[in-house]
Give the backbone structure.
Amino acid sequence: MSETPYPQHTALSLAASGVPVLPLRGDKVPFGNCTACADNACGGRLNMKTPGPCRCPAPCHAWAAATTEPAVIVSPAWVAAWRRAVCVGYHPGGAGLTVVDLDDADAITWARTALPATRTVPTTRGEHWIYRGAMTSRNAVRPGVDIKSSMSYARFLGPGTGHLADLPDAVRALAARKPSVVRPALLAGAVPVGSGECPHRTPAYLERGIVMAEQRITAAHNAIHATVYGAFLAVLSRHGRCGCLTDTHVNRLFAAAQTKGETLRHCTDAWANARTTLGL
């Protein structure tokens, strides 16, 4: 699917219909916070209904920067971002919408049997099913399925086809479930698993390393993929060969990454890539 040729024009049109928009950069994610807002030094921006103390003119704070104000969209700071943007993002929850992001053919097949028909937009690998009504966002609610609504963003990929249906209870129920966690079967053969002490350090050293990796992931405000990969790489570089890592340790790392919005697939890929880099 080709990207929007004139993102700012598309953004203005969407904003006029009440959809909060933001520019997305080359990797199709929001622009990182400016220097003044880095590490949330500005106090953050809670949401578009009750903004926090930040009044940054740039499109900072990801989904929370989404706006329907034409004056903001054409302001100098945003124009500079639009020139580098590849597509338009929007805040579904801010528009009273929920996007069920179906990432592959199996997920689409499931949706066709489990969910009511609604407006559908093709994506690079699957489809977005859009419903009228906002809810809590949650990733990896089932294989290949993410829910994007409040405190989240989605790419605008066109108007789609079909009529908007009301948000069904079946989708709300998915978000009410506990997020997916690592299944032991996924780890079979992926990492040496042992119950004894690390041969070159104490168990406390391993625990401290896991906690530091969790904190590193939790504190990330942008470049989440790279941060997760770096944290996995750091843990594996110290303990990937000594047999002291258990499924419990890896589950903790995956859970921290999923809390930041990573899918189970992304976690598994990052873990596998880190092992390949280290020759494990």
Observations:
- The chain has a mean pLDDT of 82.
- The CA atoms of residues 49 and 239 lie 46 Å apart.
- The longest strand covers residues 97-102.
